[in-house]
Amino acid sequence: MPDTRRTSYADLFRTPEFSPLFLSSSANIAAQTVSGLALGTLVFRATGSPLLSAVSMFGPALAQVLGATLFLSGADRLAPRTTLAALSLAFAAATAALALPGLPVWAMLAIVLVEGLIASLGGGVRWGLLTEILTKDGYLTGRSLFNMMSGVMQIAGYAAGGVLVTLLSPRLCLLLAAGLYATAAALALRLTRRPPRATGRPSVRATWRANALLWSARPRRHVLLALWIPNGLVVGCESLYVSYDPRAAGTLFACAALGMLAGDVTVGRLLPARLRPRFGVPLLVLLAAPYLALFLHPPLPVTAALVALASVGFGASLVQQERLVALTPDELSGHVLGLHSAGMLTLQGASATLAGTVAQFTFPATAMTVMAAGSLTVTLALTVASRRDAADGGAAAEAGPGGVRSPGGGCRRACPPPRHHGPAGSGCVADGPGAD
């Protein structure tokens, strides 16, 4: 069957439960963008610190590592409908608390770190549910549409948030975001009641055991690292938009979201499945390279164009996620996607902190260039490591970190599905979706 028919966006909305999950996630993204910009602006006005501004916007992601270590087994062991609604309500309450007049900056940072901790389950529950609703064959198309929605919501959210922060106040914007989170909770309740994907109670031991199992396979490990580090370092660049140009921060965020939207459309709909794996590494390079020019302080239109161009590279994550899902057993799909999400957000938060620290002692434009150079270095190192493993035969010639098959690699004989494989190096690994 032609790939375009099998992955039609129209078919997604004819799938039961897709629409309420999509709409609930849309409201969540809109709330995150409005609240993030409002809080970053509020903290920067109060302190004048690029570091604290960056941490306030992206610091919640730092707490994701604790959630991934302690609670992630709940991604497959909790009922998704109830969990998603409860998480949205918790965010509504926390965001409303941030709007309290006179709240000190340290208290704001404490609240956003708690938000990050409770959000650690969200990615695993949401994306695990998506694999149930669509099956693995439709996951990339569905995730592509979610990413496109995220881009649109960020464009609208940052554009509207920039106007509202200027005309009204950051605290009113935070109250608006709290209302959006409450709307997301109501939409999540329209989902069908589903049992958990895995049996047993969530526990720290179960989380550690699943994390160790997922991390033990070299192909999955390379994909996870490529999803976490290059992406996170570039988000460190984004975390400095407010201090780089306070008046144009909303514009830069909107341009970044527009570029991300273009990348998701290109990878999710325009690239044939057989070609997608070839674009993983080039997209990771594109993700960072334009930021190298920002130390020259180009005019705002040029800066906005560079930001939009760089964000097209976020489309690499679709190639990587498709590969990750193909390499993971169904009963751990929510856990591995939660691990991906938590690790990615943790690296984003750590990178925002690092970028803010560099900017504190130099300049925001200098810090952006440093973070971009680090992203390119990591991409190169992971690519070389993957190809060395392929040459040695240790990873059965798996795809590279961006989804690119290493030269000369690939077992062409019939192999069992990835879920039946032992640890890396134990034998032939089946070609992943879209592998050439």
Give structural notes.
The chain is mainly alpha-helical. The protein is built from 20 helices and no strands. Helix 3 (18-47) runs antiparallel to helix 4, helix 3 (18-47) runs parallel beside helix 10 and helix 7 (80-98) runs antiparallel to helix 8 (105-118). It is globular.
Radius of gyration: 21 Å
Report the order of strands and helices: HHHHHHHHHHHHHHHHHHHH
Distance between the termini: 17 Å
- Proportion of residues in helical segments: 55-70%
Total count of helical runs of at least 4 residues: 20
Structural class per helix/strand content? Answer: mainly alpha
The count of β-strands is 0
Shape annotation: globular
Assembly type: single chain
Average pLDDT rating:
77
Query: What does the main sheet amount to?
Result: none
The poorly predicted ranges are: 1-5, 394-400, 403-436
Tell me the fraction of residues in β-strands, as a range. under 5%
